[in-house]
Structure prediction request, 242 residues.
Amino acid sequence: MLVGRPDEPATGRSPRARGPLHWALLAAAGLALGLTLWGVLRETTPVESFVTVTAVGCSGRAHASGFAVADDLVVTAAHPVAGRRQVAVTDTGGRSRNGFVVALDPVLDVAAVRVPGLSAEPVTLAAGDDASLAPAGGSGVVAAMAAGGEFTRKPVEVMRRVRVNIEDVYRTERVSRRGLELSFDGGYGDSGAAVLDADGTVVGMVFATSRFREEVGYAVRAVEVRDLLSQVAELPQRSACP
Prediction:
């Protein structure tokens, strides 16, 4: 005589036998769990230090590079964000968040953008004003973001320390800006890019490329960036367009 196993149902049907609806429900539950985990991973994946800054307003859209100096604070050039009504910061993973300008120095052409929830890995900023921090002939990279969001490391050489006579961001007065003259293959969107030395320390921030000399650009030094950051609470957003 055949005797059924104690855990078998009274009908004698194996518990492994399941209908199409059962498997469909399991598949749906698995998909929902997978999407939930993917969302968690996207939110908890550390954001790298370098970002794309896109600003809308002033009769157009401006694109710039930027770098995190705190988990929710990004430094970029002032001229792309001055007066813009919308500022978005996109990390190298393609995630975009809204930000707002918390400090802008029109003489230095440096701005700070607060980005709630960014959770970025801050860079290391060079400290002090010693010429040895970015000596003539020193090499490194410009950490730039292309318009499509691609992160590029452009080889750079420091040519010399300079004082640039230039108009301020709002083109209201001539100013004298301390900086670095660089040799690198610059282009649109490089404004706001970090200049890194061989050790990966930020020694400057690109604010312009030369119109008359090929592969020549200019950067403010890290000491100027530090000066702006020390005034984040005092330097408000400027509403005028350049």
Remarks:
- Helices lie at 20-44, 222-229.
